[in-house]
Fold this protein.
Amino acid sequence: MSSIISVKANKDTTLHVTFEMSQKEFEKLQGVMENITIFADKNATEQSKIVVRGKKDSSKYFLAPKSHRKVLLASNSVPTQVLESKTHYHIIYSTKKYY
């Protein structure tokens, strides 16, 4: 996991943030240096469930949080990232908003 080392306010409304992370974590960015989203596991406030179906529980479904179900566009496939830490899997789905 990464850590924030310092934060400095710029003259506009942006911040200059310095991170410390392992080389392995940095390599997972695959050279992407813009449009990066940062999250902290302790800030996870939405609750959802994993539903198990099928013979011998062969299918598992991640339910979208109830608060966001009406604004999510159903799709056959969505971009997904799986991040693994010592104690957790962080599974991140990205889907377009439905208005």
About this structure: The mean pLDDT is 87. The chain is about 5% helix and 30% strand. The chain has one domain: 3-93.
